[in-house]
Specification:
single chain, about 130 residues, mainly alpha, 7 helices, about 75% helix, about 0% strand
């Protein structure tokens, strides 16, 4: 059962950050448009580099199991804040689904924060206390 659990953690860490890695890469490639959209939503555009760092860099960190607990809790909080800022207007098509998606993502990352990265991770390799 332990091997199945270890593989499950690895699979979860591969699947969970896909959305963030792709979104972060999209923000890098569409920097100006993303910055304008953020400002339109009353979020300062100077926060875009931090958003990219969290989405793209944090996504890669989760994927490889590096600084997993720290990245997971920050990502969970980020997803809730993003839901409240960008997806709370029920009059916008798809907003409710995206709001609930962000809450679900937060739940997954909160669970990863609690459990840690599992056996197959850089955290485990670098710090044997996991």
């Amino acid at each position: 059962m332990k091997k199945l659990e270890d593989f499950g953690f690895l699979l979860a860490r591969i699947l969970m950050p896909v959305l963030f890695i792709v979104a972060g890469w999209g923000k890098i490639n569409g920097y100006s448009a993303t910055q304008q959209y953020m400002e339109h939503m009353h979020v300062p555009g100077f926060l875009l580099p931090l958003t990219i760092l969290l989405e793209f860099g944090g996504g890669l960190a989760i994927l490889f199991g590096f600084l997993t607990r720290f990245t997971a809790i920050i990502t969970a909080i980020f997803a809730i804040i993003t839901a409240l800022i960008f997806h709370s207007d029920a009059s916008v098509a798809g907003s409710s689904i995206n709001f609930m998606k962000n809450l679900s993502i937060s739940g997954g990352y909160l669970l990863l924060f609690i459990t840690g990265p599992g056996a197959y991770s850089l955290d485990r390799l670098l710090n044997k206390k996991w």
